[in-house]
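Archive entry: two folds, one per protein. Generate the first.
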Amino acid sequence: MKHEIRRLEEDTQFLNSQLEDAIRLKEIAERQLGEALETIKTERELKASLRKELSHYMSIGDTLYHRYKEQKKTKVLSWSQNKL
């Protein structure tokens, strides 16, 4: 009987140790998940900001291109009128 009690106590100690390890691992996983979610949020915000900036620069480029095209067209028209 004493031998059986001793074995059960050892099993209980082992299971408690396993439970403590599992709890520690769960806490680590939860912390890493929180960090990963924060990183994703930050990256999403950065990506949105970069998209806005890119859109801004593209619209500036389009504006400059269209102005250049109009100036070139005006020069060609004035040159052809002067030739006539």
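Generate the second and append.
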Amino acid sequence: MCFESSVAIFTGDFSLYMSYRSYQIGVEINSALRRRQTHEFGHFIESPEKYIAAELPKESVKKDPEFEIGDNEVYGEYFNPILMEGGTYILYIGYVSRFNETVSTNQYVACELKL
């Protein structure tokens, strides 16, 4: 669920997600001016059009499921940059699992955010 500048992460029944260790918040600029389609999320510095803004441990999400997009802070190893006024963004939430040094992420579109 989107609010003015934040997204609520629906955790549902945590017993269903026991193998997941954290959540990732992905941000994609929704613009007709976007020149290339990127299929993978990256760090903001490498992929400013489609990036991971945060990785949050599931325990912290369970305590506070609301996350502010664009607060200019670092979460995990990801930078959550300030959003452009007047911009339109597509927000994604992913469940992250790590097993034997392999990272697996299942993502879904959470909402569209217009500033």
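Annotation attached to the second fold: Strands lie at 6-8, 22-29, 50-57, 66-68, 73-75, 78-80, 88-99, 102-114. The mean pLDDT is 77.
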